[in-house]
Amino acid sequence: MPADDVLYGNADVIKAIADPTRLKILHLLKHGELCVCEIITVMEKPQPTVSHHLNILKKAGFLKWRKEGVWVHYSLSNPKIIDMLNELLENR
User: Is 7 helix (H, G, I), strand (E, B) or coil?
Assistant: First the structure.
């Protein structure tokens, strides 16, 4: 059996995708990098809300980011993330 800290870490990763808003963000990013301002527009949610969800996904390792001037651009850390999620949810 894995150690407790490993199990808690795995649970945190699963919790990160257990939210419809975060799943939508992941699906948006499957098409490529987006600026936070673009994500806000599509999500129709306030900037603090979107930033909160982006930070959770980033901490869980799903996203990578880069700063360009005042703008932050996000992309998937692994393009196969969406395929893995779809496969996981396909058989439920």
Answer: helix
Structure tokens that stand for 41 in this block: 């527009």
3-state secondary structure of 67: strand
β-partners of residue 64 are 75
Fold entry, domain 4-90: Arc Repressor Mutant, subunit A (1.10.10)
Q: How many residues in the chain?
A: 92
Contact 70, 57 (CB under 8 A): no
Strand partners for 73: 35, 66
Cα separation, 59 vs 77, in Å, equals: 11
Write the CA distances from 74 to 15, 38, 40, 46, integer angstroms.
Answer: 20, 10, 12, 17
Report pLDDT digits (tens) over 33-89: 999 999 999 999 999 999 999 999 999 999 999 999 999 999 999 988 888 888 877
